[in-house]
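Support case: user asked for a sample of complex input and structure output to validate their parser. Sending the pair below.
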Amino acid sequence: MNRVMKRIEEYTVGALARASGVSVRTLHHYDALGLLVPARVGENGYRLYGRAEALRLQEILFYRSAGLPLAEIGALLAGGDPVQRLEAHRDRLARALGAQAKMLATLDRTLQELKGADPMTLETLYTPFDPETQADHEAWLVETYGEDMARAIAASKAHLASVPVGMEGRMEALREIEAALVAAYENGAAPETAELGAHRAWVAEMWGRPCPPEAHAGLAEMYLAHPDFIARFEALSPGFSQWLPAAMKAAAG
Amino acid sequence: MNRVMKRIEEYTVGALARASGVSVRTLHHYDALGLLVPARVGENGYRLYGRAEALRLQEILFYRSAGLPLAEIGALLAGGDPVQRLEAHRDRLARALGAQAKMLATLDRTLQELKGADPMTLETLYTPFDPETQADHEAWLVETYGEDMARAIAASKAHLASVPVGMEGRMEALREIEAALVAAYENGAAPETAELGAHRAWVAEMWGRPCPPEAHAGLAEMYLAHPDFIARFEALSPGFSQWLPAAMKAAAG
DNA sequence: ATTGACCCTCACGTTGCGTGAGGCCCCATG
DNA sequence: CATGGGGCCTCACGCAACGTGAGGGTCAAT
């Protein structure tokens, strides 16, 4: 009999609450709703959760952060393949990212109007809040369960496949390089050629061919032209989105 | 007396509701709270809103979409320079974008675990829901009104300045080119050399120097390597993030 | 044996609206 | 001229997702 010792992982409400960031009251609430019931209840009446419940809570939080009502989250979790559900949700997240970008663009226009540019129409004013732009709830349900389900899932899988295998390590490297650059920036240091060189080398590796300094400077222009990049760099450190391209161009002489 | 004919722009509740996407009830609610009061009330008792109210509503919706309680939105709008407020909010949005990216990354890891990879720790499981990662409310208030205010605003301004003047038209052009490419993709057409050429020309223009086909193909690799791009392209049309780079590389031979 | 950190179960309060109920206004059409 | 059919008004109750005590057991350590 291939019986294996099972490691008993048990968390009390407080432990799970601290780990997940939700309140104890919320766990009580989810228990009352039947959305997340403890694995077992001790003789003392304490709720005790296991690994499965921890994972279930994570999934609940994913959907909750997307604005789904708890009742529907329960229905979702009740049936179907978890992997399918999460892949569909991944698609939704990507779309939400697009919506955020729209929001940024509209905000910029509003700022320009406030600074003297000509006014925009009522329609333009509210595009980012448009239900279609927003994470569209009904459309999503239709898409998830409707006839297009197969296509959506296929797209989702292709999507995952689009990240080349073995790339993860390279992304890690990029993150380290960027961290070094951010550190240099935050210390008020002049652009360190070493770190910029590392960045250029990384680009060359990604391209599979050399990246001369001028091409690197060209990349800087591209960074500036894409709001996504600006947002990402700005998230790393305020002002960084401006500093990095400047440094790249300066290094190219 | 430099008196100018003022164009009277007035909207009833229904008109403003349709334009903005909120419900009539919501406008009533905001009126009751004193958050958004009509410019005037007709003899018939109808609420009538003007341009200023329309702009104010947009700002309210910005903050609401960020999860701010209405009471604090009112307090925010009560004092200070609108441009300053919105620039601070812009910063917040950028950070929220970063949080979304984290969420995507964690989702991918969970999917890998479900597909057989080794499990992650409780901590990793919940990182994207961590209050610090989330649009952190208190921290934002401190940052907005605290001693770092000047620095934050300065960063925000530099930030805006980092988008080169006269660039807006070019972004419009890019959007049109991308729309054409998406249309080609959705029609199942083979990559049209004309549209790809337009894209390459755009890149060259942005770079301020020519962009040979191989460089264009290199760009494709870079698109694949950056989750931001994948997310953005995926938002345009599912699967597009995979198709475009493939087309770009194919065109380069 | 007592303290302090957890746990339990009610149970009412809060926010941000949804959803009628009941009634007035307006204008286009038979 | 009446008669809809929208659109507007004001209450007023309902609901989701918890927050926030109140009142009271549990547990490990001092």
